[in-house]
C-alpha cells in the first residue's frame, strides 16, 4: 500500500516509516518540522536504503495538502502529526486545539474527498483519565487533565462521526501507553527540546551527566514500592502495531490499546537502566507531581486477539536502545 505518514519525521512516525518500508509498503511523509529536524529524513533513508518522498507542509494548510493528494494516490493514512506536550498545552490551549484538531479535520476531509480507504489515528492512554488499571477500550472516557488530552478525546469523536457517514472507511484509533526506546541502529530516536518532562528521557540525561539527579515524584503511592507505575512500550513494537492495524482493520472504527499490559515502577526502571547500561542514576524523592496518577497500564486482550499483535521488546531493550541513541550523539549528529 502507498501510505501518507503525517508527522513522519517525529519520534513515533519515523520508526513507523521504517516498519512500513520493511513490510513492503511505500511511504510519503508530510511534516512541518515544528518538533523535528530535516536530518531525520537522511537518517531514515540510510536505514531503509531508498529515498522517501517528503513534503514540508503544515497540515492546517488545506490548499497545500490538497496538492499532495493530487500528486499521490494513497491507500492509507497514518496521522501522527500533532503537538504533544501536556504542560505546554495548559499554557497554550488555543495553539493545541487549533493545531491538533484542525490538522485532523483537514486530513480526514481530504481522505474522504480522495477516497482513501484506511485511516490510523494516534490517540493516547490519557483519554481514560484517572480510572483503575488494567484499562480496557470499552471504558467510558473521562475528562483528561489537559488541553492536549482533550484534543485526543475530541479527535476520536470526530473520527467516530466521520465513520457514520462513511461506513466503508477503515479507521483505527490507537491509544498509546508510554512510548520509549529508540531504533537499535541508534540512527533515530527521541530528543526532546530543553529539559525533558517524561521519565525515560530525563533518566537518560541524568545518566549522561547533563542533569544532576532525577527527582522521583512521590514514593507514597499504593504501588509495589510507592513510586508511580506505567506501561512502557518500545517505540519499535509500537511502530509494528501501526502496520498491523493498517493491514488488518476493515471498515468501521476500531479502537486498540497499544501497550505491554504490564506496569513498571519508577524505581524498577532506575534499577534496570543502571544495570543494562552500567551507569549510575542519582535520585531523590520529592513531592508528587500534580495531575499524576498512581498506576496506568493497558488491557491488551483486544489487540492481541484481533490484530495478533503484542510487544516483544523488554524494559531492558528500551533502556539499552535509548542509551545507545544518546551515546551516538556524542560521535555524530543528533537528529531528533
Ligand atoms: P513528535 O513531536 O516527535 O512527532 C510529531 C510530528 O508532527 C513532528 O515531527 C512535528 O513536526 C509534526 N507536526 C506537528 N504539527 C504539525 C502540523 N500542523 N503539520 C505538519 N506536521 C506537524 O511526537 P511523537 O512522540 O512522535 O507523537 C506522535 C503522535 O502520537 C502525536 O499525535 C502524539 O500526540 C501521539 N502520542 C504520543 C505519545 C508519546 O509519549 N510520544 C503518547 C501518546 C500519544
Ligand atoms: C505522560 C503524559 C501523558 C501521556 C503519557 C504517555 C505528562 C504530564 N503526561 O504521562 O499525558 O499520556 O505520558 O505518553 O507528560 N516521573 C518522575 N520523575 C520525572 C518524570 C516522571 O518520578 O522526572 C514519574 C511520574 O510521576 C510517573 C512516571 O515517572 O509516575 C512516568 O512519568 P512520564 O514519563 O511523565 O509519563 P506519564 O506520567 O505516564
Mind explaining what this structure looks like?
The protein is an alpha/beta fold and 336 residues long. It has a domain at 2-180 and 232-260 and 297-312: 3-Layer(aba) Sandwich (Rossmann fold). Helices cover 41% and strands 18% of the residues. It is built from 11 helices and 14 strands. A 7-stranded parallel sheet has the order 3-2-1-4-5-6-11, sandwiched between helices. Helix 1 (11-22) packs parallel to helix 2 (39-48), helix 5 runs parallel beside helix 6 (147-165) and helix 7 packs parallel to helix 9. The mean pLDDT is 95.
| CATH classification class of the domain at 2-180 and 232-260 and 297-312 | Alpha Beta
Strands ordered across the widest β-sheet: 3-2-1-4-5-6-11
Enumerate how many helices there are, as a single number.
Answer: 11
Given as residue ranges, the uncertain stretches (5+ residues, pLDDT < 50) are none
Q: What does the main sheet amount to?
A: 7 strands, parallel
CATH topology group of the domain at 2-180 and 232-260 and 297-312: Rossmann fold
Report the oligomer: single chain
Sequence of secondary-structure elements: EHEHEHEHHEHEEHEEEHEEHEEHH
Mean pLDDT: 95
Strand residue percentage:
15-25%
Distinct ligands, ions and cofactors found in the model: nicotinamide-adenine-dinucleotide, uridine-diphosphate-N-acetylglucosamine
Could you give the count of β-strands? 14
- CATH superfamily name of the domain at 2-180 and 232-260 and 297-312? NAD(P)-binding Rossmann-like Domain
Amino acid at each position: 500500500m502507498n501510505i501518507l505518514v503525517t508527522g513522519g519525521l517525529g519520534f513515533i512516525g519515523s520508526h513507523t516509516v521504517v516498519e512500513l518500508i520493511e513490510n513492503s509498503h511505500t511511504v510519503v511523509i508530510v511534516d512541518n518540522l515544528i518538533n523535528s529536524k530535516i536530518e531525520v529524513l537522511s537518517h531514515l533513508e540510510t536505514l531503509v536504503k531508498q529515498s522517501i518522498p517528503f513534503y514540508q507542509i503544515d497540515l492546517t494548510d488545506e490548499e497545500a495538502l490538497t496538492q499532495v493528494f493530487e500528486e499521490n494516490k494513497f491507500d492509507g493514512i497514518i496521522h501522527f502529526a500533532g503537538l504533544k506536550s501536556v504542560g505546554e498545552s495548559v499554557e497554550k490551549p488555543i495553539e493545541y486545539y487549533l493545531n491538533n484538531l484542525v490538522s485532523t479535520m483537514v486530513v480526514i476531509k481530504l481522505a474522504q474527498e480522495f477516497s482513501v480507504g484506511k485511516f490510523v489515528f494516534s490517540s493516547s492512554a490519557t483519554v481514560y483519565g484517572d480510572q483503575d488499571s488494567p484499562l480496557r477500550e470499552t471504558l467510558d472516557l473521562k475528562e483528561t487533565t489537559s488541553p492536549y488530552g482533550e484534543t485526543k478525546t475530541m479527535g476520536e469523536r470526530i473520527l467516530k462521526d466521520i465513520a457514520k457517514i462513511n461506513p466503508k472507511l477503515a479507521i483505527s484509533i490507537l491509544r498509546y501507553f508510554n512510548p520509549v526506546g529508540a531504533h537499535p541502529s541508534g540512527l533515530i530516536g527521541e530528543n526532546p527540546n530543553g529539559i525533558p518532562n517524561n521519565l525515560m528521557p530525563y533518566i537518560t540525561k541524568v545518566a549522561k551527566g547533563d542533569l544532576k539527579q532525577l527527582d522521583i515524584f512521590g514514593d507514597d503511592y499504593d504501588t509495589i514500592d510507592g513510586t508511580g507505575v506505567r506501561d512502557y512500550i518500545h517505540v519499535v513494537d509500537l511502530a509494528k502495531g501501526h502496520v498491523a492495524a493498517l493491514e488488518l482493520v476493515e471498515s468501521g472504527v476500531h479502537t486498540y490499546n497499544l501497550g505491554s499490559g504490564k506496569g513498571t515502577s519508577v524505581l524498577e526502571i532506575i534499577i534496570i537502566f543502571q544495570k543494562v547500561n552500567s551507569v549510575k542514576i542519582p535520585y531523590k524523592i520529592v513531592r508528587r507531581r500534580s495531575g499524576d496518577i498512581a498506576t496506568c497500564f493497558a488491557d491488551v486482550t483486544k489487540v492481541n486477539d484481533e490484530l495478533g499483535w503484542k510487544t516483544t521488546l523488554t524494559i531492558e531493550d528500551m533502556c539499552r536502545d535509548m542509551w545507545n541513541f544518546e551515546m551516538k550523539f556524542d560521535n555524530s549528529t543528533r537528529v531528533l
